[in-house]
Amino acid sequence: MPITCTVHESPKGRKYVRTYASGVVTGEDAIPVMEKMKPGQDWHGYGVLSVAEPNTDLQPEARRVFTSQQNVPVDKRPPTAMIVTSAPLRITISFVVRVSGSAPNTKFFGNEAEGTKWLEAEP
To answer: Which domain of life is it from (predicted)?
Structure first.
């Protein structure tokens, strides 16, 4: 499976979803992830620690699904820490984040420890 998700709790009690993507990620792969983050669902309000392997191919349908929060006010979107080491993939994801309006809630990091630390500090 191109995306795996696990729920974690930080030392300070902040819950977050760690997503791990590799290979080809399609819209069908992205839908179940985003469904669980909607209001009333299991992961609503959780922060996100998103790890993408360098070989990850984020298909256009997946990008569309991941930008589906456009109708959610920016201040209601969860903080998202992105761990992307591939420069081309980082550029693509950065563009998608800006277009979706999620840039204020999203930051890129070089490793998971930095991303987790940032999530811990977010409200």
So the answer is: Bacteria
